[in-house]
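The aim of this short unit is practical: by the end, you should be able to scan a pair of folded records and say something sensible about each. We start with the first protein, listed as its amino acid sequence and then its structure tokens.
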Amino acid sequence: MPDPIRLIVGLGNPGPEYETTRHNAGFWLVDHVADDLHASFATEKAFFGLAAKARFKGETVHLLKPATFMNRSGMSVAAVARFYKIPVEQILVAHDELDLLPGQAKIKQGGSHAGHNGLKDIQSALGSPMFWRLRLGIGHPRSLGLAQPVIDFVLHPPRREDQPRIDDALNRSRAVLPLLLEGEFDDAMQRLHSEK
């Protein structure tokens, strides 16, 4: 059985002006997880971000929101992984995903960063693509019939009709997280991927 997740990273951009933007979907998820695990974030300069420690079935779980801006996320993730000696296979990165529609969420290990600057930087800083990803669908401007450039799209809040779908995907992701913390990846994927 794969080793359970010990570090959950949410990707986003720091600052109130980005809080509600699509690119911050990873932050939204990790905030929910912190609530679920009764953990609170504190600024950790050594980790270039906001970090929290939680307990799950007697084991320590680390939560992280890099404060480096998206394209430098790797610096923060690598600092925590090195300090706590967390292998790359025990890291889960939650991020916004253009290739999935709002309301969809998928878990996978490894693979390409598909042009996502946060994933690209983490892959480079960890020296491996083999961390787990929780891909939170935000849709693509083309698939949603919008003429907006991608960079503009991800830095804006979801449309009114898309936000409830994204919230639903966040809630379904939260529901399977305990399985990931137990190393039950197949069960988690089956549950998350079979729900629409």
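Turning to the second protein, read its sequence before its tokens, just as you did above.
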Amino acid sequence: MAVKLGRYGIWRGAAGLTPELAAEVEKLGYGAIWIGGSPPADLALAESLLDATSTIAVATGIVNMWTADAKTVGASYHRIAAKHPDRFLLGVGIGHPEATAEYQKPYDKIVSYLDELDEAGVPVEGRALAALGPKVLKLSAERTAGAHPYLTTPEHTRQARELLGPDALLAPEHKVVLETDAARAREIARPPINMPYLNLRNYVSNLRRLGWEESEIADGGSDRLIDALGLHGDAQTIARGLNAHLEAGADHVCLHNLPDDANPLPTYRALAEALF
């Protein structure tokens, strides 16, 4: 693929991203900034982050197919790609059924949206697909550069690589809490993991496929599950947890600092020292 993401990037909600933060993240050596949530079809934030930097890639994680018109997204993609060649990756996905009243036949929606991106001239290598289950993972390899799984573990990465084959992009997100006190780390990680994700069918189904019992998913998640989905510890411990995704077959891992509303730079700096 043309866009070079590097081995590690950061994932942060759109509201918490600024051009100033992007410049700092680039200086620390990260390869990509992933815009979390459902950024609008104009992709203005992605453009502003690219304008403020010179080498780091920017990706969307993800543009929601139900709310962002594909033709508008396609035009936005071409505007940004012309201005910043080989630095923008368009991540797209369908979100989850509970968030969209008209959510029907999600697989068909993905296929039709990718068809529209084809018509808009968005290249296969310039886009990625949010994917968890086997069917959509396979589609991501067929119709895009590859997959951007969210709320996963290295075991999912291992299984995903087997489905994707050796050449497709695999760029999972993983939440981190730079905190050595396990109880405190779980207090930070559990609320954003539980609500909404442990109450959404696509994420719960994925965890069940990975072998997690209902008893560990229910009631806010067991400590073991929260520890698996929200890495905690010192920087070296978290770095080893992130690196496990690469060992399992990922090309790139984007770390998601918790809590979301905290200043992420101390965590980014500490992890950069451990990772690079």
